What does this fold into?
Amino acid sequence: MANSAVASSVPFIWEGTDRKGQKVKGKSMAATEAAVRADLRRQGVVPSRIKKQSKGLFSGGGKITPADIAIFSRQLATMLAAGIPLVQSFEIVGTGHENAAMQKLILAIKGDVEGGSALAEALAKHPLYFDDLFINLVEAGEQAGALETLLEKIATYKEKTEALKKKIKKALTYPAAVLVVAFVVTTILLIFVIPAFEDLFQGFGADLPTFTRMVIDLSVFVREKGWYLAILIGAGFGTFFYFKKRSRAMRHWIDRMSLKIPVIGSILQKAAIARYARTLSTMFAAGVPLVEALESVSGATGNIVYEVGVLKMRDEVSTGQRLQQAMENTDLFPNMVIQMIAVGEESGSLDDMSSKVADFYEEDVDNAVDNLSSLLEPLIMSILGVLVGGLVVAMYLPIFKMGSVI
It folds into this structure.
């Protein structure tokens, strides 16, 4: 019932006076204006003006991103640390959010909590936005009576994880975008520019250089068969992404191959280790048992190869084997990581040592991405120069040849 009520809620802007006679204003989500008035009366506010908020150009449904969840975690942790009750915290965070979809999500959770559900149960109803790791940590915080502390850890974890993802995207997006631009520019030249030179060369009455002939033939092929080629490439990409989404075996193969790509593979490996260490540190610091923690850690690595490896480690640890030995058996972790985890196990500070490993590898990924960008810039410029410059040279070779004859 709470969910259906919230789902039909709309934003209302109101103004009024509080118990001290001071003017106040704000925004509330409710199904009707009467519901807003009743809610304000419970808060001791006498409304003087209530109106439904009109949806402007930028106030659409919106999309909930992992960054939104990270910000929500930080805001909720701050509210609880300041002593604000949980339900009121949801009200403040929800009504103040600019994303309408996030507003509905937060207020839906608030409705469940008001109805008597535990926060972990309310979050579990939205698996698209709150994974098992998030829910397990919240549940541990509720049971230990330290929800604000655990939410603080979740917020820190989410922020660091999102920052790491952005670094990886930065490393992969820039060269991909430039290569796409190069492909588009080359296609435009082959379809629109080369034919103009071809018409010009027909009146020369002499054989064209081999390089020029090859470019002209390529231009003819693209103009005559280009649509078939485009359909074939599009179908190939569509098939690839279709099976990638539905076939775990294919994703496993892609993740395994991606780790072997020069330079980029090393960055992806370090990122997976950083996520593994950061998640393990967060879970263990929250008091989650190691075997149970490894279950959540496996899904947070971001790479199926490491996910399978961590699940194998979980099985070995559940039989009494030390984490250090289980990590060695996977052959996925550098010796430094294994030794630091071993020290953490021996000293009883596994969460601190895992956090240090995560800090080290996150910084290493950051430096590697910066170095990769520096290396790729001249390489990409060279590729653009060869593609575009090669076409230009091919078209001017006959003109140079004619000039030498004259």
Observations:
- The chain is about 75% helix and 5% strand.
